[in-house]
Design goal:
The chain is mostly helical and 499 residues long. It has helices spanning 3-21, 34-41, 46-54, 70-83, 87-112, 118-131, 145-160, 169-186, 193-203, 211-221, 223-240, 257-269, 282-299, 314-332, 344-358, 362-372, 374-384, 393-415, 448-458, and strands at residues 65-66, 245-246, 421-424, 464-468, 482-486. α5 (87-112) packs antiparallel against α6, α5 packs parallel to α7 (145-160) and α9 crosses α10 (211-221).
Length: 499
């Protein structure tokens, strides 16, 4: 890829990302954990700065587990320093992180698929990743930037590693250690960088090599990444007094592994329903077809393409992408609940495989055409279900409702003295059904710990306690404390119609 081509590709992807995600800059701050993360990450003194890297996530306010994410904390601290509580500041940062991921995806594709088709593959990978509908779950809620940062530093780590034809030396490997440290410091799932880096060095070797030799070489070259991950995990254990992790949620049973993996595959490969048509097994069939198509494509020679000694061979790339996907499944298997945004890590190797399949030449289509048909089919679904064509008015409606909640709370707090009760029936805004009438994209609720943090940000001089009706149905007012009790209320009519 020429320097001129890289600049044009970068500018094109930047323009696309700005055009597609421009509506997010008008949204309110959404997400359960936004206000607690802003409150506990903001820096007003040197002790606050130290707290960003020495405290658990939300400083223990998160009710469902203990986590350590200092890198994510620092990003929130920077946003608060630059824009206070202005939502546009946080949305701008999330957009920039997404753009960085998009550019790194294109850069990684260019490294793995060189030659005259390298620029095309990089462009397709960047466009598909930029438009993937999984970002509807991520860019709309600032707390989910932890997943985006995790992927950002994982991609950066891979780009710093050596290929057989291009040895980055010890400096590159130790840069990879730093990026691995930052990936795990963004979110726990960042530990996926270790097996993925190991797969990189095991798959991409020069000349004939036995499996034991590959494994020994991979282990030796992955040592710096192992050190980066290990240092962060050691600090995490010290801060949390253990490994931490999720706590069981009384109302929810732990999800089964089959359901979890099926959700990951669906949200990554075939985010249906598509024009009102849905099937439980269709994403699984599509995923299997993608694997078969990628393997078939890797074995089909490309006509008129001279051998590029700097490029990894096609079968090694497919093996690497497969191991990367398996590593994501392995790390995600520790989750106890299904979350759609977990699919972000899986989207990277899948998009790279699809981009390569879409650039197959005529000779490859003639030898393995039926198998390659899956690539344009999945790409079409991804584009049609993404931001450009998926209606988003419900996002703005929910944003308005969430803002109205805060305005009602503010009016009540200003008119209620300490030592009294303020009962609030918060609208728990949910994303309404998708445009085709099926499914719910996500859930945003005004939880007690979230509104508690907002009150502390808004009125630091007042003593305000936010509790839910479920915590204490017979709560008594306390002298000098304004108690805000969240009480249940009627649900929107359309919620009753959901399956």
């Amino acid at each position: 890829m020429t320097s001129h081509g890289r600049w044009l590709l970068g500018l094109g992807l930047s323009a696309l990302a700005l055009w597609v995600y421009w509506p997010i800059f008008d949204l309110a701050l959404l997400g359960w954990d936004t206000w607690p993360m802003i409150l506990t990450a903001r820096v007003q003194s040197w002790s606050d700065l130290w707290g960003c890297v020495s405290e658990s996530m939300m400083d223990g306010r998160y009710p469902h587990g203990e986590y350590y994410r200092p890198v994510t904390n620092l990003f929130f601290a920077l946003d608060h320093a630059l824009g206070g509580l202005d939502p546009r500041t946080y949305h701008r940062t999330d957009w920039l992180i997404h753009l960085a991921n998009t550019l790194l995806m294109a850069g990684l594709a260019a490294r793995l698929f060189r030659g005259r088709h390298g620029l095309r593959i990089a462009a397709v990978a960047g466009v598909l990743f930029c438009l993937h509908p999984i970002h509807m779950e991520l860019i709309t809620a600032p707390p989910r930037r932890a997943d985006m940062l995790c992927l950002l530093f994982t991609l950066a780590c891979l780009l710093s590693q050596s290929l057989p034809s291009r040895d980055t030396g010890a400096r590159g490997r130790w840069m990879g250690a730093l990026f691995a440290f930052l990936a795990v410091g963004s979110k726990e799932t960042g530990v996926v960088v270790l097996p993925v880096a190991f797969a990189w060095h095991t798959c991409f070797v020069q000349g004939p090599c036995t499996l034991p030799e590959r494994l020994r070489r991979g282990a030796r070259l992955t040592v710096p990444v192992l050190i980066g991950v290990g240092v962060l995990l050691a600090v995490r254990t010290l801060v949390l007094g253990g490994l931490g992790g999720p706590l069981p949620i009384a109302e929810l049973e732990p999800v089964g592994r089959i359901e979890l993996f099926s959700n990951l595959i669906e949200r990554t490969v075939l985010p249906i329903p598509f024009w009102g048509w849905s099937s439980v097994y269709l994403p699984l069939v599509a995923a299997g077809w993608l694997v078969a198509g990628a393997i078939r494509l890797s074995r089909a020679p490309q006509a008129g393409e001279p051998e590029d000694r700097q490029a990894p061979d096609a079968e090694s790339v497919v093996a690497f992408l497969g191991l990367w996907s398996l590593a994501v499944f392995g790390i995600t298997s520790f989750a106890d609940q299904v979350r759609d945004w977990y699919a972000l890590l899986l989207s990277a190797p899948v998009v790279l495989a699809i981009a390569r399949g879409l650039t197959a030449d005529r000779s490859q289509w003639r030898t393995s055409g039926p198998w390659l048909a899956i690539f344009p089919m999945v790409a079409l679904v991804i584009v049609l279900r993404g931001w450009p064509l998926e209606p988003t008015p419900r996002l703005h409606a929910m944003s308005i409702l969430a803002q109205q909640d805060l305005e009602r709370l503010e009016e009540g707090v200003l008119s209620t003295p300490e030592g009294a009760f303020l009962r609030l029936n918060p609208w728990h805004p949910m994303l309404s059904p998708a445009s085709d009438g099926t499914g719910v994209r996500s859930l945003y609720s005004a939880f007690d710990y979230s509104l508690q943090a907002w009150c502390e940000l808004r009125w630091p001089e007042r003593s305000i306690e936010v509790i839910s009706w479920y915590q204490d149905k017979n709560a008594k007012p306390r002298p000098g404390v304004l108690t805000v009790q969240l009480i249940p209320g009627p649900e929107p009519a359309w919620v009753k119609d959901l399956p």
